[in-house]
């Protein structure tokens, strides 16, 4: 589930960068949050759900 959200946010982020829409900042924020969550899960050693 987390990886699906991560991939979707990556796609949205790439679209935001390419199209330079006004939601680009929001998409960047979501991407940073998604990366932080993935890194925290990897550091803690939790198994994917």
Q: Give the SSE order as H and E letters.
A: HH
In DSSP terms, counting alpha (H) and pi (I) runs of 4 or more, how many helices? 2
Helix proportion = over 70%
- Secondary structure class reads mainly alpha
In total, how many domains does the architecture comprise?
A: 1
Q: Would you identify the regions where 5 or more consecutive residues have pLDDT less than 50? A: none
What would you report as the Rg, rounded to the nearest angstrom?
12 Å
**Largest beta-sheet characterization:** none
**Beta-strand proportion:** under 5%
Q: Give me the oligomer status.
A: single chain
Task: Give your account of this protein's structure.
With 49 residues, this protein is mainly α. The chain has one domain. The chain has two helices and no strands. It has helices at 2-19, 24-44. Helix 1 packs antiparallel against helix 2. The longest helix is centred in the last third of the chain and has 21 residues, at 24-44. The radius of gyration is 12 Å and the shape is elongated. The termini are close together. The model has no long low-confidence stretch (mean pLDDT 76).
